[in-house]
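User: I'm curious whether this sequence folds into something compact or stays loose and floppy. Could you predict its structure so I can see for myself?
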Amino acid sequence: MEPRLTPAPPLGHRTTGAAPPPPGHAPYWDIDVGPRLADEVRMSGFKHLMVGCMAAACLSEEPWELHNAPELTDRQALADMARALGARVDVDGAGERVRIDAAPLTGHRVPADRSAQVHGGAYLLPVLLARHGRVESGAHGGCRIGGGHRGGRPVEHIARVLERFGATCATDGGGLTAKAPRGLRGAVIDLADFSTPDPCDGLPTGPHYSGATKTALLAAAGARGTTVLRHPYPKPDAQELARVLARAGVAVDVTPDAIEIEGADGPIGGARVTLPSDLLEVVTFVTASVLLDQELTLRLTRPDVVREGLAPELLHLERIGVPLRWDGDLLRIRPAVGPLAADRVVAASHLVYSDAQPLFALLLLAASAPSTLVETVWSGRFGYVEGLRSMGARLAVHGQELRIHPGPLNPAPGPLRGNDLRAAAALLLAALAVGTPHRLYGVEHLARGYARLPAKLRALGGRITPGGTTAPDVPDGADPAGSQDKEVVHDV
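Assistant: Here's the prediction. I'll summarize afterward.
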């Protein structure tokens, strides 16, 4: 995209996407561009599978090892939760390896201070219930897109899943208390019950579908008897979790329309898991390469999983004209020839990841004609729109649909702010594409989804200088700005 370096026209009103700096000394990044330093970047491991595996390890009394486990806030928070519950957790930051020995785990209360930081702690709920017959937790945090209590992630659907396994549950203020004194028992569950139909094709989608499937998988592994999960969430974060449980000795049969699990009725076995590359990090760096008009090679782990899991995204990238070439464990991105083509992209549980939707919005600003994005998973997923409007983008939101009129981006008139993980990523890439200095707030969200992001962006010429020290006040359930993974070191 060829940036136009004239000032953007003033907006009629200030909004969260292009707000003045928040009070206090909130974390921010100063963003600029310089000479690129490398032609290749290695992608980190898949966050959405990592959190499920860390929870599953707590079903076992034998050690689990996770390799290619990225340095994220979620990893640190889940490791701290497991330790507080009694497990032994060793983290090798340099080697991205996590070893969990949950044999001494005795606790049943999920630490509230850590669960409020990330969403991944919710997957400890079925695990602790299966192991101890009871579990308690406070609110679960993460991006404020879940519609839960005071902006936290909802847990009511998790309670409904656990009730299918015979548990008695109560939810209050974003927290959950559940009991199953006689243990969990196998069940037949149609996971379409925890979804909403896609208005285009009627297939299951919605904000609770993925979480309900992963909750059911973990509960079923520790339950007594057979569980049949019909219409499970089809993406790799759930499907690969089922295969990981099979490697730990759980009898699992995965078919296109159902997953059948014969519960262990007790501890499961150990496992050694190498996580595939993070699918959304791959889409992020494809987007960065296209916007900056630079060739880039991504080094992948388990590229077969990446390629299968990103099939809908790859179809759209091909359709709009992004040149990609697969070469073993490498994905090569070349500059587009001419403008990109317009497209209609639907984010749904069986189509493009909702997390990828903001990145497609950036790409389609460089298209030759207007495009449309449709969001069927999360509400509040257009948090990047006002930030891009402050940079001159012509975007119109109509309910869950975003209409994109192509055109160049300009320097923003003030600081940018990302209010969730992918909004912050989209605004970061937009600032790099413009090529002039910008300040971005909300960077604490990026620590939940990208490992060593400033260092990786140096390959494309990104120059990122962290600033700020303490966080402004944030509502309960939001991710506190000071909660970045203490192991993350930004190499800038």
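Summary: The chain has a mean pLDDT of 88. The radius of gyration is 22 Å.
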